[in-house]
Write a structure and sequence with these properties.
The complex is a heterodimer. Chain A is built from 13 helices and 14 strands. Chain A has a 6-stranded mixed β-barrel. In chain A, strands 2-3 form a two-stranded antiparallel ribbon. In chain A, strands 4-12 form a two-stranded antiparallel ribbon. In chain A, helix 2 (about 20-55) runs antiparallel to helix 12 and helix 11 packs antiparallel against helix 12. Chain A is α+β, with helices and mostly antiparallel strands. Chain B has helices spanning about 45-50, 75-85, 100-110, 115-130, 145-155, 175-190, 200-205; strands spanning about 5-15, 15-30, 35-40, 60-65, 70, 85-90, 165, 195-200, 210-215, 220-225. In chain B, strand 7, helix 6 (about 175-190) and strand 8 form a beta-alpha-beta unit. In chain B, helix 4 (about 115-130) crosses helix 5 and helix 5 (about 145-155) runs parallel beside helix 6. The two termini of chain B are about 20 Å apart. The chains are: A alpha+beta, B alpha/beta. The interface of A and B includes residues 1, 5 and 309 of A.
């Protein structure tokens, strides 16, 4: 007998009790919605992490002071950077100083993030596919540039009411800098809303001497990056007396740390999904038991008119399966909407392309299959009760 | 013989009490016979009906339907037997409320594995035969009592069974619809179906050629005459 006949028969029955059927579905809907949105965010995070890893290049070691209660316990200096540069396996180092400063353009003043970089090393550190920076107009900072700046796309386009272009003059704490280049949009809000200028000039303005906030060390081709990282860590431990006060991390470690944070999210969401799916299954089982009790006489009629036990079983399992799949479908639709809105929120607040969630066809098939199984499993016991009914007793109602 | 009972005993348990519904009944019903089963409430009429209809197995003795002993059949073999050999007509009609007249009639054919188009075709024919060709898509709630019982009769005929079993088929109907139902059932008998009717109504009962009187789970008498 065709599956279609069972589907039609079940739909007749379920549509007879629309509200009840809908309420029964809520648990499954919420559960599948959580599963779908979780997995889509998860795969989106994975994809964007991978992208970032590729963007940054896997050949760099990052050295930065540990920040506790808003201040750094130790500071790093040019001397530290020079020492790191002498570590075997290190190709070159690029010390950076980042600060949020008062920036004026024409009559407007804003607080903008400023990166002090060694102009000679700017392109090697950030450019050429290493960190995703590409020039839109103008040029990179070069050796000998002092009061020159390259700006992110957001600074060019968005921060001030008038666009800043190559040749424009900005004042950082009153000191004039000429814009020589504009980067293309990277999608990373932090990168796009930053001004890049001469390290010594920036430090001079803010009076921080030879302090650096981040040292990026690029490792020699073919060198074991983890070995180099450990060498740098030991060196800094010697220089600073302890390794507790700074981080020496490779790209991989940074990404692993983010991955760990994501796993926590996954466990929380997964737990929520599991609980609501159990609630959903219990809801279906409950409705199905009620369904069988109410339809006792009908079951008698089905049996009297020649339905075998297997056919009665299939009739009731189909009811349960439809409940499961309908809940699953609604859950997938809602999960998709959540995924979509997270996408939009991420594009707006984290930057374009930072997190692209995806509800893949595989995910849809998985979620539907899973909800079908939930429905059928929840329906087994009630359907078995229907099968066991004695036709004579059942006809008596 | 299309139906043959040999010393049939049926005992029910109602809680701790054992109820002897049938105490040893032997009965032979020839093919094409018109039989009425009469007797007071509790005489065992319905129990007898359930056994003849293969809805139930006897506690003792043997029940043969078209030569098959149902006493030892599995549930599924019983279901197949009901599907092929027996059509039930109930006092309460027992139509499925959410299905249309057509779908109710097609139901036994669904269980028998008849294709969808063949089911619809035959169900239409049967409904036309019982005079409901214009009510195919009505739900039972939209039909009168007499119409509902005629749908039930059409359903009983779906798989072209040998035996039509009617349990108080006129019990819930007014006199004129009751008479229409009686005439329809008798028409089927004329067409060759074995008709077994349980009834309280002596007038209806007298119309049968073979009349079985039950009391306290035993046959008190079988009358035969020319009938209608």
């Amino acid at each position: 007998m065709a599956v279609l006949d069972y589907l039609i028969f079940s739909l007749r029955n379920l549509s007879h009790h629309k509200l009840r059927s809908f309420l029964t579905l809520l648990g499954v809907i919420i559960g599948i919605m959580a599963v779908v949105s979780m997995i889509s965010i998860g795969s989106g995070m994975k994809a964007s992490l991978k992208e970032q890893l590729e963007q940054l290049g896997s050949d760099k070691v990052f050295i930065l002071p540990r920040i506790a209660y808003g201040t750094a316990a130790v500071t790093l200096s040019d001397d530290d950077a020079d020492a790191v540069a002498r570590v075997p396996g290190v190709a070159f180092v690029s010390p950076l100083y980042s600060v949020a400063g008062d920036v004026a353009y024409r009559n407007e003043r804003k607080i903008v993030k400023i990166y002090g970089v060694d102009p000679e090393k700017a392109e090697a550190t950030f450019g050429a596919g290493a960190s995703g920076y590409q020039l839109l107009k103008g040029r990179w900072l070069q050796r000998g540039d002092v009061y020159k700046a390259v700006i992110g796309y957001g600074v060019h386009d968005d921060v001030f009411s008038r666009d800043i272009n190559v040749g424009s003059v900005l004042r950082i704490h009153g000191v004039e800098f000429q814009v020589v280049g504009v980067f293309k949009k990277t999608g990373d809000r932090e990168k796009d809303y930053t001004i890049y200028a001469n390290l010594d000039a920036v430090r001079g303005i803010f009076g921080v001497g030879d302090r650096v906030t981040l040292i990026i060390a690029r490792v020699d081709k073919g060198a074991d990056i983890e070995e180099v990282r450990q060498r740098i860590e030991r060196l800094l431990e010697d220089r600073k007396g302890s390794k507790e006060n700074f981080f020496v991390m490779t790209q991989k470690e940074i990404i692993e740390r983010v991955g760990e944070a994501y796993r926590v999210v996954q466990v929380v969401f997964g737990g929520l999904a599991a609980v609501s799916l159990i609630v959903g299954a219990v809801g279906i089982a409950n409705t199905m038991v009620m369904n069988v009790t109410e339809r006792t006489r009908e079951i008698g009629v089905l049996k009297a008119t020649g339905a075998s036990n297997a056919q009665v079983l299939r009739i009731f399992l189909t009811d349960a399966a439809i409940l499961g799949v309908a809940g699953g479908a609604a859950g997938i639709a809602l999960g998709y909407l959540i995924s979509l809105s997270i996408n939009m929120a991420a594009a707006r607040y984290l930057g374009e392309g930072m997190l692209t969630t995806a509800v893949t066809p595989e995910l849809v098939v998985f979620a539907l299959g899973f909800s079908l199984i939930i429905g059928v499993v929840a329906g087994i016991y009630p359907a078995y009760r229907a099968v066991r009914l004695d036709p004579v007793e059942a006809l008596r109602g | 013989m299309v139906i043959k009972l040999e010393n049939v005993v049926k005992v029910y348990r109602l809680g701790k009490v054992r109820v002897h519904a049938l105490r040893g009944i032997s009965l032979e019903i020839p093919r094409g016979e018109y039989v009425s089963i009469m007797g007071p409430s509790g005489s065992g009429k319905s129990t007898l009906m359930n056994l003849i209809g293969a809805l139930d197995r006897p506690t003792g003795g043997r029940v043969y339907i078209d030569g098959v002993d149902i006493s030892r059949l599995t549930d599924d073999r019983l279901a197949v037997l009901r599907r092929k050999k027996v059509g039930f007509v109930f006092q309460q009609f027992n139509l499925i409320g959410k299905l249309s007249a057509l779908e109710n009639v097609a139901l036994p054919m669904w269980f028998a594995g008849v294709s969808r188009s063949a089911r619809v075709h035959r169900a239409k024919q049967l409904l036309e035969m019982v005079g409901l060709g214009n009510r195919l898509h009505h739900k039972p709630a939209e039909l009168s009592g007499g119409e509902r019982q005629r749908v039930a009769i059409a359903r009983a005929l779906a798989n072209d069974p040998e035996i039509i079993l009617a349990d108080e088929p006129t019990g819930n109907l007014d006199t004129s619809s009751g008479m229409a139902v009686i005439q329809l059932l008798e028409k089927l008998n004329h067409m060759g179906k074995t008709l077994v009717v349980v009834t309280h109504d002596p007038e209806f009962g007298r119309r049968a050629r073979m009349r079985v009187k039950l009391r306290d789970g035993l046959i008190r008498g079988i009358d035969r005459n020319g009938g209608t």
